[in-house]
Amino acid sequence: MNYTDFSNKLKQLQISKEEFAKMVDMNYHSVANWKSKGVPYWVEVLLYHYEKSKNLDIILNIIKQYNDGVVPL
Protein backbone atom coordinates (compact mmCIF):
# COMPACT_ATOMS: atom_id res chain seq x y z
CA MET A 1 0.00 0.00 0.00
CA ASN A 2 1.44 3.36 -0.95
CA TYR A 3 0.73 6.65 0.80
CA THR A 4 -1.94 7.70 -1.70
CA ASP A 5 -3.77 4.39 -1.22
CA PHE A 6 -3.44 4.83 2.54
CA SER A 7 -4.90 8.34 2.41
CA ASN A 8 -7.76 7.24 0.16
CA LYS A 9 -8.60 4.29 2.41
CA LEU A 10 -8.71 6.56 5.45
CA LYS A 11 -11.08 8.90 3.60
CA GLN A 12 -13.27 5.95 2.62
CA LEU A 13 -13.38 4.80 6.25
CA GLN A 14 -13.92 8.39 7.44
CA ILE A 15 -10.81 8.37 9.63
CA SER A 16 -8.44 11.32 9.78
CA LYS A 17 -4.71 10.75 9.93
CA GLU A 18 -4.79 12.21 13.44
CA GLU A 19 -7.46 9.69 14.50
CA PHE A 20 -5.51 6.86 12.90
CA ALA A 21 -2.34 7.89 14.74
CA LYS A 22 -4.23 7.85 18.05
CA MET A 23 -5.84 4.52 17.19
CA VAL A 24 -2.42 2.86 16.72
CA ASP A 25 -0.78 4.84 19.54
CA MET A 26 1.64 6.70 17.28
CA ASN A 27 2.67 10.29 16.91
CA TYR A 28 0.87 12.03 14.04
CA HIS A 29 4.18 13.17 12.55
CA SER A 30 5.37 9.56 12.34
CA VAL A 31 2.31 8.71 10.27
CA ALA A 32 2.81 11.81 8.11
CA ASN A 33 6.42 10.76 7.49
CA TRP A 34 5.15 7.64 5.71
CA LYS A 35 4.70 9.88 2.69
CA SER A 36 8.47 9.88 2.22
CA LYS A 37 9.43 6.67 4.04
CA GLY A 38 6.64 4.38 2.85
CA VAL A 39 3.64 2.89 4.61
CA PRO A 40 4.46 -0.09 6.86
CA TYR A 41 3.14 -3.47 5.68
CA TRP A 42 0.88 -3.94 8.71
CA VAL A 43 -1.24 -0.85 7.95
CA GLU A 44 -3.06 -2.45 5.02
CA VAL A 45 -3.93 -5.50 7.14
CA LEU A 46 -5.13 -3.36 10.03
CA LEU A 47 -7.35 -1.21 7.79
CA TYR A 48 -8.77 -4.31 6.07
CA HIS A 49 -9.83 -5.76 9.41
CA TYR A 50 -11.03 -2.39 10.69
CA GLU A 51 -13.32 -2.11 7.67
CA LYS A 52 -14.65 -5.64 8.18
CA SER A 53 -15.29 -4.92 11.85
CA LYS A 54 -17.11 -1.68 11.02
CA ASN A 55 -19.33 -3.51 8.51
CA LEU A 56 -20.04 -6.29 11.00
CA ASP A 57 -21.12 -3.71 13.58
CA ILE A 58 -23.66 -2.37 11.08
CA ILE A 59 -25.02 -5.86 10.41
CA LEU A 60 -25.19 -6.69 14.13
CA ASN A 61 -27.11 -3.47 14.84
CA ILE A 62 -29.67 -4.41 12.17
CA ILE A 63 -30.08 -7.89 13.67
CA LYS A 64 -30.37 -6.39 17.17
CA GLN A 65 -33.28 -4.23 16.00
CA TYR A 66 -35.16 -7.37 15.02
CA ASN A 67 -34.30 -9.15 18.26
CA ASP A 68 -35.41 -6.16 20.35
CA GLY A 69 -38.70 -5.90 18.49
CA VAL A 70 -37.92 -2.43 17.17
CA VAL A 71 -38.61 -3.44 13.60
CA PRO A 72 -42.02 -5.11 13.09
CA LEU A 73 -41.98 -8.51 11.42
Query: Which parts are unreliable, with pLDDT below 50 for 5 consecutive residues or more?
Result: none
Count of distinct structural domains: 1
User: Which structural class do you get from the secondary structure elements?
Assistant: mainly alpha
Q: What is the assembly state of the chains in this entry?
A: single chain
Sheet with the most strands, sense and barrel status: none
Number of strands: 0
Q: What is the strand content?
A: under 5%
Please state the CA-atom Rg, rounded to the nearest Å.
16 Å
Overall helicity? over 70%
Kindly describe this structure.
The protein has 73 residues and is mostly helical. The protein has one domain (3-67). 74% of the residues lie in helices and 0% in strands. It contains 5 helices and no strands. The protein has helices spanning 3-13, 17-23, 28-32, 34-37, 41-67. Helix 1 (3-13) runs parallel beside helix 5. The protein is elongated, with a radius of gyration of 16 Å. The protein starts with a helix and ends in a 6-residue tail after the last helix. The mean pLDDT is 92.
Short description:
With 73 residues, the chain is mainly alpha-helical. It has helices at 3-13, 17-23, 28-32, 34-37, 41-67.
Descriptors for this entry?
73 residues, mainly alpha, 5 helices
Please describe the topology of this protein.
Blueprint: H1 3-13, H2 17-23, H3 28-32, H4 34-37, H5 41-67
